[in-house]
Write a structure and sequence with these properties.
Largest sheet: none
Number of helices: 4
Number of strands: 0
Helix content: over 70%
Order of helices and strands: HHHH
Oligomer: single chain
Length: 64
């Protein structure tokens, strides 16, 4: 996006990809975390919750 810091821009891209994977695959959160380059699933969950105000699992449940 325009006017975002590089860090915010990367976060936005990661969130978009995470949401796509959560909505369109049945992969475990751990697998999605690995795919997105997080060393720990817990770090991915914290990141996602900070960006979206829901956990990856909660987001996925909302998509069903």
């Amino acid at each position: 996006g325009v006017g975002l810091s590089p860090k915010a821009c990367i976060a936005q891209r990661l969130v978009l990809e995470a949401k796509r994977l959560l909505a369109h695959t049945s992969w475990p959160v751990q697998t999605i975390a690995d795919q997105l380059g997080f060393d720990e699933a817990t770090n991915f969950v914290k990141f996602f919750r900070r960006e979206q105000a829901v956990t990856p699992s909660e987001f996925r449940a909302q998509q069903r």
